[in-house]
Amino acid sequence: MNDQPPLSLHVPEPAVRPGGKPDFSSVKIPNAGSVPRPEIDVDPESIRDLAFSIIRVLNRDGEAVGPWAGLLSDEALLEGLRHMMTLRTFDARMLMAQRQGKTSFYMQHMGEEAVSCAFRKALEPGDMNFPTYRQAGLLIAAGYSLVDMMNEIFSNERDPLKGRQMPVLYSSKALGFFTISGNLATQFIQAVGWAMASAIKRDTRIAAGWIGDGATAESDFHAALVFASTYKAPVVLNIVNNQWAISTFQGIARGGSGTFAARGLGFGIPALRVDGNDYLAVYAVARWAIERARRNFGPTLVEYVTYRVGAHSTSDDPAAYRPKTESDAWPLGDPVIRLKNHLIRRGVWSEARHKQAEAEILDGVVTAQKEAEGHGTLHAGGKPSVRDMFEGVYAEMPPHLRRQRQQAGV
Amino acid sequence: MPRKTMVEAIRDGMDVMMERDDNVVIFGEDVGYFGGVFRATQGLQAKYGKSRCFDTPISELGIVGAAIGMAAYGLRPCVEVQFADYMYPAYDQIVSEAARLRYRSNGDFTCPLVVRMPTGGGISGGQTHSQSPEALFTHVSGLKTVVPSNPKDAKGLLIASIEDPDPVIFLEPKRLYNGPFDGHHDRPITPWSKHELGEVPEGHYRVPLGQAVIRREGAALTVLAYGTMVYVAMAAAAETGVDAEIIDLRSLLPLDLEAIVASVRKTGRCVIVHEATLTSGFGAELSALVQENCFFELEAPVRRVTGWDTPYPHAQEWDYFPGPERVGRAFLEVVSGDQ
Ligand SMILES: Cc1ncc(C[n+]2csc(CCOP(=O)(O)OP(=O)(O)O)c2C)c(N)n1
Ligand SMILES: [Mg+2]
User: Cα–Cα distance between A306 and A327 in angstroms, integer?
Assistant: First the structure.
């Protein structure tokens, strides 16, 4: 007989569940400005600690401090604020439209606006993002038409994707936004492949992969890291850690690893953690990683520490799995308010101008929505044609599909 | 007898098996604390503890691969893949591993495993929440593939699947979770509480794998259907007045060939309906079997009505879905010989 005590299964649990008092004491937050900024040709081995810290620029008083500060002009910051506010307003309107039955489904960014809006500003034309469904800021900050985004969401007669895709799964090659798959993680490795192609062709373009905390558990994530590491691909690998994957807290995907960023270390990939609710910090880190890639120093893994304030999607109700007030307790605050306060502190913004901007932005979004709705919504008005369903499966329609299209009478 | 939705019946099936056999373990994405995005495992973690019902990292490969290891150890895992559309990362584990452990080890290792997945469209889910990949499983030696069409069968088939000594792919037509959807998407759905097949017996019972059931007797033609398409075919028969004999296959592999052959020999005509794409779909297999077994009794070519050979679209969902109108037209053409 074996007299060992029996084994037991370890299943991680979040600190609190509904009914409990929100607790983020486990999220260690260094002071803004306290994390050094290494040279971009740094030996990854010498910056392993950056995978366990959090790079922050904006402090509690709304000042930009430390070695990662000082990159953005007043104009650029005001534009950044406008992008984030536009995304937030866009989300609010589209959530309402979904409730009104104008579309089937929507996914919002509340709390995460800084990540995609700031990152986009660090890219050059020709670079390519491989986004998830929660990076519409990449489009907004690139100046994509709000009307076209809504046309896609409403699956109407002007939908650039002909009604084939679910809402928010946009595509825009022209603006460096790869067609979004509904299957998680698949595109992380494709970003690496795109970046390798740029190197093969001796181009200067770089790629950015995007993935959520939960989806890092997929094998595609690990495949991306090993390929990026082996070929030193010119790619920025972005993990958006918003603490939740539908109902599953980040500890289930992270397991025993200290942080998501630390996953890069075993692959010899420099890994940085950044305050995802700090527009300036996101921009600074994005620029660092993008420059490394462009100067042929290889991949960087970046973890954005943020919080999903809203529901996962319009099909989800987070009250079933986390305390209702958890988002209020999130220690990194709100990205829009933090940038607003910083701009006021800089003397280029005020509460009054902010209110006015809110009204102007709402006006612009509402005007765009009216125009889009004029082209139809999911169940009313102009629709993509049934013919479009049969087109585009192949470059040239094979005979069997032609026959089926005839049978369908279109 | 209590009436239950299909989700409640499936949950009840797992509950009964967890109660009876502590080797039954349940896991998948969001299935633990929350109870699954369709709530099929709601309450099971609270009742049986975290080491018997738990959340997993988002890795379908991991879910199925780990389940295979547990099954080989002697457990009976019943795991959930959140949508059938997300099973592809697990496909290698299912095809190359789960399906072959018994054969390649000559019975030294076996794999009593159930992989549950919501399947089929009709929920505006576009190409990543609507697929019907059953033929990708029936094509693989060593797997069984089950598709229930109502709460009563769902529970009995799930219990039989969990008790089965081999891996079973359990496809749950998500459009049927709340009621017998017949393809009339613009009409309110009848809830299972108003349908006799919503009556789910208490406790343990099995619906054996490989037994089809006749949902409607008829003389004019035989309809081979499973899942959602059973109700679409019923609606088509009612609306066209064609006296169709509608067979609900319930399990695709093993398949109740006897029931199929007996019916087609009687009616002399056969229409096969499924939501999955046409080419190399399970209907091709059924059509071949009918031809091989009933050639001399057939009075018309076997006809298939299926989803078109395109990815499942978002906006054109109801043009894609083989609804009662399209199915009914096929009935009329097959009985009139006008094809
Ligand atoms: C391969 C695959 N498995 C499961 C899903 C279902 N699913 C959609 S989103 C999601 C959670 C993703 O969480 P995370 O990666 O943290 O991203 P977030 O939604 O938080 O931005 C899941 C499980 C999917 N879309 N694809
Ligand atoms: Mg997440």
Answer: 10
Return residues 7-26 of A near B (CB < 8 Å).
8-9, 11, 13, 17
Establish if A336 touches chain B: CB-CB under 8 angstroms: no
Domains of chain B: 3-199 (3.40.50.970), 213-336 (3.40.50.920)
Round to whole Å and give the CA distance between B233 and B221.
12
How many other CB atoms sit within 10 Å of the CB of residue B195? 16
Residue of A nearest to B322 (CA): A408
Q: Which residues of chain B have pLDDT under 50?
A: none
Q: Which ligand is nearest to the CA of B90?
A: 1
Give the per-residue pLDDT at B145: 98
Do the Cβ atoms of A307 and A111 come closer than 8 Å?
yes
Q: Which among B61, B127, B309 has CB closest to A182? A: B127
Indicate if A268 and A402 belong to the same structural domain: no
What are residue B271's DSSP bridge partners? B223, B303
Cβ of B319 and A389 within 8 Å?
Answer: yes
Determine the structural domain holding residue A390 and report its residue range.
385-410
Distance CA(A375)–CA(A381), nearest Å, equals 7
Round to whole Å and give the CA distance between A168 and A109. Answer: 11
Are A340 and A408 in the same domain?
A: no
Instruction: Identify the residue whose C-alpha is closest to ligand 1 atom 13.
Output: A245
Taking CB atoms and an 8 Å limit, are B34 and A217 in contact across chains?
no
Q: Is residue A125 part of a domain?
A: yes
For chains A and B, what is the number of CB pairs under 8 angstroms? 128
CA separation, residue B290 to residues A18, B99, B297, B330 (Å): 56, 27, 10, 17
Ligand 1 midpoint to CA A184 (Å) = 6
Is residue A40 a contact partner of residue A342, using CB atoms and an 8 Å limit?
no
At A202 the pLDDT is 98
Contacts of A410 in chain B (CB under 8 A): 319
Which amino acid, one-letter code, is at A406? Q
A16-49 pLDDT, tens digit each: 999 999 989 888 999 999 999 999 999 999 999 9
Q: Which residues contact B275 (CB under 8 A, 6 or more apart)?
A: B120, B121, B132, B227, B228, B229, B306, B307, B321, B322
**pLDDT for residue B339:** 62
pLDDT of residue A27: 87
d(Cα A117, Cα A134) in Å, to the nearest integer? 11
| Cα-to-centroid distance, A212 and ligand 2 (Å) | 5
- Min CA distance, A5 vs chain B (Å)? 17
Q: Is residue A89 part of a domain?
A: yes
The CB of B149 under 6 Å from ligand 1? The reply is no
- Does residue B274 carry a catalytic annotation? no
Query: For B316, which of A219, A316, A384 is closest by C-beta distance?
Result: A384
Output the CA torsion B43→B46→B50→B56 (10° steps): 30
| One domain, residues A393 and A308 | no
Domain count, chain A: 2
Residues A56 and A197 in one domain: yes
A375 shares its domain with A394:
no
Ligand 1: atom nearest CA of A250 is: 16
* Chain A residues with beta carbon closer than 8 angstroms to that of B34: 246-248, 320-321
Name the stretches of chain A with pLDDT < 50.
none
Contact status, residue B317 vs residue B202, Cβ threshold 8 Å: no
Ligand closest to CA A168:
1
Residue A198 to residues A127, A203, A232, B242, Cα–Cα distance (Å): 10, 5, 12, 61
Atom 17, ligand 1: residue with shortest CA distance: A212
Q: Concatenated DSSP letters for B206-248?
A: ---TT--EEEE--SSEEEEE-TTHHHHHHHHHHHH---EEEEE
Cα-Cα end-to-end distance for chain B: 46
